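FAQ: What does the model actually see?

It sees only this:
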Amino acid sequence: MKVQILTLDAKSAGEIELRDSVFGMPSRPDILQQVVCWQLARKQQGTHKTKGVSEVSGTGAKPFRQKGTGRARQGSRYATQMRGGGIVFGPQVRGHGFDLNKKVRALGLRTAMSDKQREGKLVILDTTSLKEGKTAVLAKAAAKNGWTSALFIDGAAVDSNLARAARNLPGFNVLPQQGANVVDILKCDVLVLTTAAVEQLEARLA
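And it is asked to produce this:
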């Protein structure tokens, strides 16, 4: 499919041919759901922790004598039924990530980009380089193009001025093509790719 190439000033800069195998995939919400869950699970820290009976520190003395108190016999102050005792089956430090097939992950990325293309929210730029790394410059360009939130994906390296300008704009993010991911694509309103990013993504995903 042919798509128009634009500049940051919303002017035409030619056309580019996009591969249907990357940007023309059918919608697959089930695949997107799997990839999103995989990404979010890998981000989860898993640092929650409670102490078990063997980890609670303190005296090992018997709480009270065995007989004559009218209470149930106890052998430790740190049994689970005692106040301040250990926790049974409490959360432990662990990783929440799980494995997901590489082909499924690649299909999720192709599907997310294809959905943006189908919705008319995929923009191809000739370049994302800015003369100045000022937020006002990028905000003016975004207003001219009608972008309320956008994810810029460049080639192997991002333009430093663009990254600096996008830092103070809520809803705007800049990534190299290696960092392209489903969650960030779905969060943004407009997906903005450079011609270099298109070439590298097609070489990687086709």
